[in-house]
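Protein 1 of 2
SEQ + STRUCT:
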Amino acid sequence: MAMSDNHAGKHRALRSTVATALAGFPAVLLVGARQVGKSTLAAQLVAEGSLAASVTLDDFSTLAAAQTDAQGFVAGLAHGTAIDEVQRAPDLLRAAKLVIDRDRRCGRFLLTGSANVLALPATTESLAGRAALLELEGFSLAEAAGREPPLQLFELLFGHGSWSSAVERLRAMVSPLSATEQRQAIFFGGFPEVVLRATTAFHETWFSSYLALYVERDVRDLARIPDTAAFGTLFRLAASASGQLANMAQLGSDAKVDQRTAAHYVRLLEITFQLNRLQPWFRNVRKRLVKTPKLYLRDTGLACHMLGITAPDQLVGHPAAGALWETWVYGELRKLAGLGPRVDLSFVRTHTGNEVDFVLQRGDVMAAIEVKAGHSVAAEDFGGIRELRELVGKDLRGIVLYGGHETVSFGDGLAAVPFGVLRGKRGRKRLARRSTAKR
């Protein structure tokens, strides 16, 4: 399934980060799911002069040359070449290391991969000290709206100034986001082609093709798994379990595979950037905390497709609606965390069931975010954040992101903030979104 170039001129927030990394490292390894725009980003860098050329291992002749003589193939490339889909020939990393060690100039290679090539068994070279590792995901809400990413959100949550001032700044960051727009953002997800077309008919066709090609080509190429039907079943079950604790025994039982095979399939979904395991925050405290990670599908558009949701309005009252809103916010936070100083994401759940959806940490500074799809927030919605404060012994800041329209303080360090804060500030031309009517 070829990606059309109708988003070739669209700005990606990570673009300047990649260009900066090329100026500071001999190589940059840019990874992410197939069809999130890695090839398009590489082409943009070639067009603007940050790179000299681009080759793709999706081309059979190019792949054959790379697999036959990896060292000769790499040595023959111009300085500043992008090699697309490098996971198809993992030996290229070792060959790139040899070339780099002879010529340490920055910007030698941009290597892109639709699988985490460093986690593949066939990979024997990490390019440690020679390459910057960056991850590209689908469009964020801000990118889809043609706006600047709301990086200030993290700074305000980690800040130590006046909370009343922080609340006012949060209020100023909010761009109105209607319930309809929220449902559309979740339904269409982040894959550029789907976001830019934004029709229910294209949504259905695109994701059906994506899943078929992903399972029948990408997974077979990477893992040689004997039963792709069982893998596809487990993938759909994982979509249904997005936002829940990872239960490999249950997933395996439902997919009719053993627990070890289920764990292998989940790992493969992680390596190919279809799924995340969010690790629990843990510290030696008196309360017993859950130590099992949670599963999240990477893209809510794909999750909707796999759950049989065929239009945005079907999210209203859907049993998985709350989990999909949480999955969507996690994706937005993940994309935002990849643009600035390091932010670690985790969650907290006690054995009594109290939970904080997302714990943010930068060094010793922590913050908390709860997600509520509804249009109102009450004091009890901050119960998990207050309990986390007691666990860590300090007044960390926390917000409830919700579907309403007002930013409201709930005491020192606590506030309800609309989802519109994730939309970012104006600064770039809005991407055209077509009608969602079926055509």
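Protein 2 of 2
SEQ + STRUCT:
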Amino acid sequence: MSGGLDSGSVGAIAQELSKSLGGLPKVMSYTAGYDSLIPDEERLYARELTDHLGISNHYMALDKIQFFEKWEDPEYHFPEPIENPMSAGFFEYFQMVSSDCRVALSGEGPDNLMYFQMWPYIKELRRNQQWSRLATETAWFLWIRPFPWLGISSRIQSFAGKVKGQSGLPAWIAPEFIKREGLEERWKACTGPGLPRERHSSRTRAHASMLLPEWTNLFESQDPGVTHCTVEVRYPFLDLRMVEYLLAIPAFPWTYKKKLLREAMINKMPDRLRLRPKTPLSADPIAAKIRDRGVQWVKNKPLSEQVCDFVAPSMLDSFHVTIDVEELRPYCLDLWLHGV
């Protein structure tokens, strides 16, 4: 329970269904956050929402988790390399949930399924010759949308990066490894959502985003075979019926700022939370932890020979004087290989 719209709507409906069945199964909520490492108010929002719904909320502070904590413990080991040096918090969170529950509900899905694009929707209306709707909804959209300079600015920056020839590949990857495995071509092939052979007529990116490999990684990482906890994670928004429905509704106005979900939660969530914009973490906790510890500890952690097949250590010198979360990944890979 993050205190946001997606997980909050799952909690609201779950509690509503539980009440209709006499309070069984019992609904509980769990929140992970930060108290001091970075500014983070999700705990307060989650508590406000759970108080409103009448369900308990269990909170875990992740500030105490140290880099590579318990990585040598088989119970805290991922079957594939990971990039989060504070992953011990992930396992401890599941241990907390499994002490009470056998099923956990996740709010994942709406960010992808309700990804808003107006231009493909306009083209579909024009293709179907729905002239009245085209005129009315285009005018409505132009009236309520924010000033477009932010979007234009990000596109210019993206274009400038392409002109400069930035491949996106981290500079610390060993050149021989890049050449041997054809990484530049593979990087281009997997960057951004790959468009399926049959594109959705008006929800192109929302539809394509459901094919991203991150979904497989998410589902597998939360499987009991990885967490070592008897908790099955379920995703109500990713039920196939829900996916098909959310990809079938008109893009505007229903997916614009998740209007459909906000309307559905009237009188089910406090308006302050129901209308709250999506709010990601205000800072990167890993970067904050690096600032707390300093970078000297990295100098005392030379990379092993086996990871040098993939990494060029000389390209990591900047990490010793600056804070760059990206350059922490080779150390994650090194310790993961050591654990194997």
